[in-house]
């Protein structure tokens, strides 16, 4: 468990929110929308006697439809969107020198909470891109609601997450209400979700497969690897490479960022330019990397890295605090294997190639980092006192 006595977000005390979701599902005035995070699909099966890492995405879509959700989306679509925005931020800073390097990822809310309390001086280094499920939430209550002729506040958004910290993230600031009301209404953990499936009496494992709803449900292999440590970095580099060179990467697998080593470092060659990256998971490792950066900057030296991925949980979200209890490294590795298998099997493996992402920019957002993208898909960070949020 990543949630020690120092757990920054009170995640030790999981609040059961299934009653609120059951109630919403009975409410005909609400349009119920749900999304699942990448790491959920490779862990739900464990509660039904399957091996960790078994990919159940299409059965999860089916059970969510049977439970009465009006639309079933996927956080992986949001992950593709996060990559579009974050890779663009990286290019802005690294190539065009508009903003400080290293750029540090921020899709983990336990990490964001920690940085606001312990590293507020590093705030300019953080990506302002919202986390994937918040992006899907904001787009559901704006773009999707407008298309459907629905009022934002009549849409009820549920996120099924491997994470207890996400419960706090949905109300962390006014920016989580880009649509005018809270963009995600409730976060359920993988454990709460499996309890819902079990109490529904639905024969989950024997359900036929289904597809997600368009367009906020269609994802690429880059979107799904967000669930494992190193995945965000790998996905971002696939797209940053294209943004910088105008060419597609020949080999998209980036083995250097994978696996359970606490800090992974690599130098990536983008057409003769060296990009130094670091991937840290588990807060002790994160602290180590940040101190390296801080001391280089304080000494007036070049920082050792240009781009850093951070996840609070060991193994990344596959080892999250909302996953089935009792994760070991063996279980984390098996879940991660499921994630990389899903990527490998995907026809499209880079976020910028997702046709639905392209359509969304064309129809609605313009381009990454546009005014509208900033309004809906970005956030800001503020120093927070240690004991009084
Ligand atoms: Fe949540 Fe852990 Fe993933 Fe961070 S790494 S988003 S705390 S599950």
From TrEMBL:
The keyword Glycosyltransferase does not apply. This is [FeFe] hydrogenase, group A. It comes from Thermospira aquatica. Keywords: 4Fe-4S, Iron, Iron-sulfur, Metal-binding, Repeat. It comes from the Bacteria. GO terms for molecular function: 4 iron, 4 sulfur cluster binding; ferredoxin hydrogenase activity; iron ion binding.
């Amino acid at each position: 468990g990543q949630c020690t006595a120092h757990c920054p977000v009170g995640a030790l005390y999981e609040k059961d929110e299934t009653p609120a979701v059951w109630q919403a599902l009975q409410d005909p005035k609400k349009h119920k929308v749900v999304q699942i995070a990448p790491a959920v699909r490779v862990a739900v099966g464990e509660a039904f006697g399957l091996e960790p890492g078994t990919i159940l995405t299409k059965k999860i879509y089916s059970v969510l439809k049977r439970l009465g959700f009006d639309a079933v989306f996927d956080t992986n679509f949001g992950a593709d969107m996060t990559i579009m925005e974050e890779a663009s931020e990286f290019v802005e800073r690294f190539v065009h020198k508009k903003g400080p390097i290293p750029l540090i990822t921020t899709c983990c809310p336990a990490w964001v909470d920690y940085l606001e309390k312990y590293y507020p001086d590093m705030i300019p280094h953080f990506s302002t891109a919202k986390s994937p499920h918040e992006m899907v939430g904001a787009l559901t209550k704006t773009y999707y609601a407008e298309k459907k002729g629905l009022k934002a506040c009549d849409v009820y958004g549920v996120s099924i997450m491997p994470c207890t910290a996400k419960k706090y993230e949905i109300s962390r600031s006014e920016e989580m209400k880009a649509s005018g009301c809270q963009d995600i209404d409730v976060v359920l953990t993988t454990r709460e979700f499996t309890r819902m499936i079990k109490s529904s009496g639905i024969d989950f494992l024997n359900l036929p497969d289904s597809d997600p709803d368009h367009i906020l449900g269609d994802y690429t292999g880059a979107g799904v690897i967000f669930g494992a440590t190193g995945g965000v970095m790998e996905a971002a580099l696939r797209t940053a490479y294209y943004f910088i060179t105008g060419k597609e990467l020949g080999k998209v697998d980036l083995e250097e960022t994978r696996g359970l080593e606490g800090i992974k470092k690599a130098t990536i060659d983008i057409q003769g330019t060296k990009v130094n990256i670091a991937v840290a998971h588990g807060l002790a490792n994160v602290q180590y990397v940040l101190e390296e950066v801080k001391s280089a900057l304080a000494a007036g030296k070049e920082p050792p890295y240009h781009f850093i991925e951070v996840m609070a949980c060991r193994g990344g979200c596959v080892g999250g605090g909302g996953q089935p209890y009792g994760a070991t490294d063996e279980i984390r590795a098996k879940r991660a294997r499921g994630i990389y298998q899903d990527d490998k099997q995907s026809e499209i493996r880079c976020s910028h190639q997702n046709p639905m992402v392209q359509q969304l920019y064309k129809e609605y957002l313009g381009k990454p980092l546009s005014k509208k993208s900033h309004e809906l898909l970005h956030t800001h960070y503020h120093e927070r006192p240690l004991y009084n949020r």
